[in-house]
Amino acid sequence: MGKQIKIHQIDAFAEKPFQGNPAGVTFGDELTKEEMQLIAREMNLAETAFLSKSSVADYNLRWFTPTTEVDLCGHATIASLHFLYSIGLLKTKSEIKFDTLSGILKCKVKDDRYFIQIPVFKTEVFDGNKKEFLNALGLLESEIDNSVPFIILENGYLYIYVKNLQTIKNLKPNYKELLKLQNFYNAGGTIVFTRETFDKENFAHLRFFGPYYGIDEDPVTGSANGPLLLVLNKLGFINIKNNNIDLSFEQGDIIGRRGRIGVHFSPQNNELFISGKAVTVLKGEMFF
Question: Is the dihedral of CA 189, 115, 106, 86 positive or negative?
């Protein structure tokens, strides 16, 4: 007798279908790690999330790309919250905790928006070979500001500031070369961002490249947008001081997957939250 699961495909950080970043979500209590990886490969989305019982939180939550398990995925967590809400296991104005490889994540639902607490990673100036990354991304030195350093997080995400939106639109990375660099520096995600935006109410626009994770370009990346607020502070584009700060960022427009992400940081509590909306686009069953 084989196994059968119900699985949803959900567009996260989206206000309507076919926007944002799609993720698969299902329950994984009866699944092995190998089966989770096979399901993620079959779904062939940036990430598929698996919810299961936990002794230390409301649920255990794991995320798999088509090729590997990852420590943190913002959009698939938003999708998981929407999944639980849509099947009646989560109510509005309620809080929930997930046990993950990145620790316990505090989440909540308010109105039609989902909020996730994500880790506050240390930010450092990147001291590797910047020219190698520029070449792999197809960037000219004239398109960056040499007074603004590259910033790397302790989780390996590398942030590169460019002067304008047109430069981001024109990017044509060499993914094979970028993968080599990401492996060499153990820097899994490369983020290119600018202060110029499509919508005036947003503070920055970014693109995320992750061949290290088996994803050449991720449409909308919660785990990259959240720390961007800390990167902007490190670079002097904002000054957090002791006040709570809320910003909105955008991603995905250039590849036809418009996404919008809210970011909230509380310096008093050292807490970083990302938020967004989500819509279900597919419900199905899988047999194996």
Answer: negative
